[in-house]
Amino acid sequence: MEHKRINVFGLGTTNADVPSSALLGNKGANLAEMARQGLPVPPGFTLPTEVCRRVLAEGALPADVRDDVQQAVRELEAATGKRLGDPERPLLLAVRSGSRVSMPGILDTVLGVGMTDDVAAALAKASGNARFARDVHRRFLARYATVVMGIRTRIPGDQDPFHVQLDRFRTQRGLDDDEELSEADAAEVVNRFRTLIRGTLGADVPQDPHHQLTDAITAVFLGWRGPRATAFRRANHISDEEGTACTVQAMVFGTLPPGCSGVAITRHPNTGVRVLYGEYLPDAHGEDIVGGARTPCPLSESRGGRKPLKEAMPAVYEQLHAMCTRLEAHFKDVQEVEFTVQEGKLWLLQTRSSSRTARAAVKSAVDMAGEGLITQREALLRVDASRLDTLLVPQLSSTARKEVLAQGLPASPGVACGKVVFHAEEAEALKAKGLDVILVRTETSSDDVGGMRAASGILTARGGTTSHAAVVARAMGKCCVVGCSGIRVDYVKAEFVTTGGVHVRQGDVITLDGNTGDVLVGPVQTEVSSAVPELDTLLSWADQVRRLKVRSNSDTPQDAELARKLGAEGVGLCRTEHMFFEAARLRCMQELSLSTSSEGRRAAMARLLPMQRDDFLALFRTMAGAPITIRLLDLPLESFLPDSDRQRSELSAVTGLSLDEIRVRSDALRHSNPLLGHRGCRLAVTYPEIYEMQVRALLEAACQVHAEGISARPEIMLPMVVNGAEYASLRALVVRTAEKVFGEKGVKVPFLVGPLIELPRAALAADELAVQSDFFSLGTDDMTRMALGLSRDDMDSFLQAYLDQGLLRHDPFVVLDERGVGGLVRTAVDLGRGARAGLLVGICGEHGGEPESVAFFHRAGLDYVSCTALRVPVARLAAAQAAINAG
Question: What is the DSSP letter of 860?
Fold first, then answer.
């Protein structure tokens, strides 16, 4: 039967339409699709995201939707031969959320809906397994009281009160795991859970199954506005308006022998190798393996004495393998499949595109293209460009001295070092102070996501490589070690203790190796990550597709050399002031800053000239004919003068000036806001000696490498330009100096001159600048500061509140503000090319290495982006993705 507000699946009918994840959520759409493919999916129905929006608006499940739910339940009862609340053949339901974008561990689930005292007794009798029935009952009580009745809001602390009760009971009985609970033990736990609920809330879980179902569905929808879900959406730029779907399914039980629950991934989530990877737990529900309360067994290879599923249930393993292969081929992506085996029968509970490391994403995309599953263009779109730089993160040095504290399971690769903390709030607080931290938990839950994001690495005592901690860490690109059974976490004492008796306290420094699972004492030496051959292949495909060129922000030959190795096609920003802070150069700049005469300034610049020329010689040789955009001095002169009296005394001894004279001159140069005022090209208006020296140095270097047979392509950038008259005056200075150098050297080398457009006024008057310009470089960092009236430092005072409250979608210094700053960029491009056709235009701000911003620059018609060396691969892939998406 068709339902306007409900989609049914697995009830013996086949819907010809491909399910929509925007309507049914990722979970509901994929369940419906698996049912369409004839795979063994427990039957159920999905309430779409439009119902969520109605519930959020009305605060309750609308009457017409309640009627549809009852009709769908009747169909489900007919298909299963069971009835909700029937003491003879009870139907138990799982109520699960599922948004369009997978949000693992964030949204809510209620299992065992329909459970009552009578049903528990009937289930024990029907199954012949009273312990099983009690186990289902206590799980239902815990989830219903938590999700629907909100018990966690009434109990202080960050630990699940039901986990605390269960752990306390196991300790009293001397038991390690849940499966060791006897029938009597399980019954006692149920009673303790009831007492906890009644004592905390003053009410019992309702005995009416239909009441339970309505309230569970409503709670799942309302959870979309919960703090965890809201924080996740903010961090992942998901619209609040999307909402979640809600799927109601007949329960299957991995606790009915022979039974188990597990997760299978069609390719290794860390490496991308094509192998069925995953874990399972005998006598368990799916929440046990995802929650990480027990350390699971592998699917195919023995590990730590645990028998793999391939040996324990060979027929089930082969069936699972075949179904996973089929799902990957159907969805054309790596699949993460949740499954349960009940009384020997395999059921598939969910499939979704698997979270994976950047290394695995690159390899699987390239391999799938080679296997013919996807095209090269699809492979380019399959990889998250923003995470490519994690492939270049350091690894532990092979020669490093290591003291291993404990060893767990490697869940997400890389190396992380930091101070130990035990609570999410502490991780966030220390991160805000600029400290690196390692979040250590017995197991993580959705409440820990903020701290996980703040931490450099995550360590858990329990859980496997498909637990909440592992999945979330991989999605974040965080180093993570899980299932470290050799440590015991004590939240009260704020420490963890190893089996060897070592106490590691809050604030102690440890290192995690996400490649081996090692937990190490203190900081450990690292080295550059090993190469990923498939990355070269993927980026070669990207280079064939992209229109935007990619340059690097490089101030030294070492930076430039690394950038070239990573595929940079030139230098888009060389910040010359960064060359002036070495001791001998700094002294020249200090003498320049303190001088009150042109002769004194020229003398200081004459001493600096050969050093500056050597800088450019090295850059030209390194880049070997690639363009180099050189920004002339931008910093205000006060940046080169000392603040302390001790340093001023040293400077006094060198210059012969008194301390008072140095203080007076320093005060005269000081700005209330060093981002504004007397800096950039304004320095050359008042002190032309500075730019004359820099232009001479770079063109003399260009002439010298020309004589060596090396092409030099300098692009001379004038920063902080504000209008055409100012720019014309400074361009004339550059040209005059160039003519002098070329006359002296008897050779000419080509060079370009252009402004750095970073002031809103310059963008709005770009046509008057373009008529005399060979190129434009857009400085979106300062343009963001000027246009929004913000600085990066504002993140610590109020900007984070704007992000938390959704008043800003992104940090504008990370992702370009397209409406405001982007409008200035488009204006500069349009006016500039309107006045001078074919004008070369590039971007040199930090936005040049951020994929969403790169896509905007492609649409705006820029010729190139420039970014830090390690982000060059990111920009190359992002530029290709922008070209593909633009059609």
Answer: T
Give the sheet arrangement for strand 495-498, strand by strand: 487-490, 495-498, 503-505
Helix axes 209-222, 63-80, angle to 10 degrees: 120
Residue 445: predicted pLDDT: 77
What letter would DSSP give residue 82? -
Number of neighbours of residue 788 by Cβ within 10 angstroms: 16
> What does the pLDDT look like over 58-103, one tens digit per residue?
999 999 999 999 999 999 999 999 999 998 899 999 999 999 988 8
Buried b (16+ CB within 10 A) or exposed e, 50-83: ebbbbbbeeeebeeebbebbeebbebbbebeebb
Nearest to 112 by CA among 100, 95, 124, 129: 95
Lateral strand order in the sheet of 44-47: 7-9, 44-47, 244-250, 93-99, 109-113
Element housing 740 (H / E):
helix 724-745
Minimal CA–CA distance to 77: which of 209, 202, 167? 209
The set of residues, in sequence order, having a beta carbon less than 8 Å from that of 460 and lying 6+ positions away, is: 292, 408, 440, 441, 442, 443, 444, 467, 469, 481, 482, 483, 484
Phi, psi angle pair for 454, to nearest 5°: -75, -30
Give 543-559 pLDDT, tens digit per residue: 999 999 999 999 889 88
Q: Give CA–CA dist 632/404, Å, rounded.
A: 50
Q: Is it the case that residue 804 has pLDDT exceeding 70? A: yes
CB proximity list for 352: less than 8 A, separation 6 or greater: 26, 27, 30, 102, 335, 336
Burial of 531 (0-12, 13-18, 19+ CB in 10 A): exposed
For 372-382, how does the pLDDT look when each residue is reduced to its tens digit (9 = 90+)? Answer: 999 999 999 99
Q: Name residue 326's amino acid.
A: R
Q: For 867, phi and psi rounded to 5 degrees?
A: -150, 175
pLDDT at residue 16, rounded to an integer: 55
- pTM tops 0.85, yes or no: no
- What's the burial of 415, exposed, middle or buried (CB within 10 Å: 0-12/13-18/19+)? buried
CA 489 from centre of chain: 27
Name the strand (E) or helix (H) holding 592: helix 583-594
For range 288-311, the mean pLDDT: 82
Residues 6+ apart with CB under 8 A from 215: 148, 206
Strand 260-265 relative to strand 335-342: parallel, antiparallel, unpaired? antiparallel
Distance CA 32, CA 295 (A): 31
pLDDT single digits (tens) 472-531: 787 677 899 999 989 999 999 999 999 999 999 999 999 999 888 999 999 998 776 667
> Which residues are known catalytic residues?
468, 844
Question: Tell me: the pLDDT tens digits for 607-655?
Answer: 999 999 999 999 999 999 999 999 999 988 888 887 777 777 878 877 7
User: Cα(671)–Cα(669) distance, rounded to whole angstroms?
Assistant: 7
